[in-house]
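The records we work with from here on pair a chain with its fold. A complete example follows; check for yourself that the lines match position by position.
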Amino acid sequence: MFEFNIYEKIFKKIHFIGIGGISMSGLAEILFYKGFTVTGSDAKQSKVTDHLESIGIKVFIGHDAKNIDNADLVIYTDAVSNDNVELNACIDRKIPLIDRATFLGSLMKNYKQSIAISGTHGKTTTTSMLATVLNFSELNPTMLIGGNLDDIGGNVKLGSDDLILTEACEYKANILKYFPTIAVILNIDEDHLDYFKGIEHIKETFKGYFKNIPKDGYLVVNTDDENINSILNSANSNIITFGIKSDALITAKNIEYDVHGNPSFDIYKEHNLVGNLKLNVMGEHNILNALATYCVSSLIGIKDADIFNKLSHFNGVHRRLEYKGLLGDVKIIDDYAHHPTEIMASLKAIRKSTKEKIYCVFQPHTFTRTKILLDGFSKAFVDADKVIIADIYAAREKDLGEIHSRDLTEKIKLSGIDAIYLGSFKEIEDFLLNEVSDHDIIVTMGAGNVYEIGEDLLKINETPNIKQIIV
């Protein structure tokens, strides 16, 4: 079994293949600030690679066998293909090679206490909520987030060796490589079906994850989720439950929404009122994320008043129902949702904030997900007035010609939802400029680069005659 001791410096020079990934870059920063010599490579330059270079990490754009020269350890991301030249050079030269999840799991063991946030949806937002609470506490944790949080100035913060907070993704059963003392499971849903065989395979993976939590550790779970409930009897650790509809230990009641779609609600513990919390982020799903945050924060000794105070000032994380700006009087929002359940939750939240038209620009993420979850996607846009489907973002996959965005568009139409396919971002931007009216909402949605559409549209604000464009 791979072991990594952050203090012994057995591996002095560490190279990351795919360092531009959000989790990879965070790990690279932690090691860099701990005194290791860190290098990395990525297929393309990005804001992430620029940031890493700015703090002193050497980043190679493009993969080449010479990039790993003198490396003592090489860490690679799941997105790296088996024919990667650096990967194969490591094998040829017998350089220690480890995947990101295994390395993170080993790194976590260097901390006295570790918190891992998992689930099909909501990991980044919940980790960010918890990071917001912890950031102003005396605990001073090390934090790794799957998105950029303004409160910590990015996606990583180096803290003490007592506590680490991180996300735990289930893709390729990576959660089996983590050994947290506190594990949060927000939900279990069908996803990553290019790896998993179905929901039973996913549930079996989470059951295996339960075994990694020590008996004196804690499992914090959403008992509104039936898939979680169906496997809870496999857990051997302490269990803390939360929910809205279920009879959980921690519940939310008396839920109300303001004109912006932001909820306020009472939190109860064992049917006793704890207090009222008003969130500054939209949607019922964020109530559940806040309940999970409350459970963990309370468990590690943070006072209720401090939890409520910090949660009430949480403004969200980038790319999660993120307000981008106004195009005239048209609001532009960007969201990372790329699964039917996430799309429905985000659009439902936006619908609570407006009676005007919602234009949803959706960029499907991966051919496999689009094909297997086609029926779910076709029914997910019920709260949108108009859906514009962009080309599928391939990510790690190749186009085998089995599915196209036109197929999704036609399926959405069969569900009675107004939808159109427009392949290029330029076509989509021109279409929106001709269609939207004052006070409408444009939401760009997907895990790829669809956010660029909103950014392009906002540049039009520099045009003096903006009111002539939006009528």
